[in-house]
Amino acid sequence: MKLLRPSLPTLRSPLRRLEHLPPGVVVPRLRGSKLQQMRRRLIVRDGYRCQCDMCEAGGAPRPITLATMELDHIVQVADGGTNDPSNLRCLHIECHARVSAAQRARSALAGGEAARPGG
Ligand SMILES: [Zn+2]
Questions:
Q1: What's the CATH code of the domain at 81?
Q2: What predicted TM-score, i.e. pTM, was given to this entire model?
C-alpha cells in the first residue's frame, strides 16, 4: 500500500518575535475584551507581582490584582513596541505612572520625536 502524501507547501508564516517595529508602523492599542483577556493572562504569568524595578528590589512586592494593575509596554508603542506578551508586563497603577513618566523623559532626551502624551 502506498501512502499518498499531499505535497502542499505549508504556508506557515515564521513566528518572529517582533519587539521592535520599523518607525511609522502604528500598533493599535489593546482595548475591550482583548485587553481584559491579556490582563487576566499576564497577571497569572507575572505571578500577581508588580514587575517594576522598585517593587522587585524591595524583595516582597505588594501583590497586584486586576483592579490595581495596568499593563505596561516595556518598549513603548511610540518607540515601536508591540502588544506581544513578551513586550508587556504587569505593574501597579502608581508604578506604571512612575515608569511611564521616566520613559517619556528618556524619550524626550533621546530625540523628542518619540515623546508624545498618553504613552
Ligand atoms: Zn511596582
A1: 1.10.30
A2: 0.69
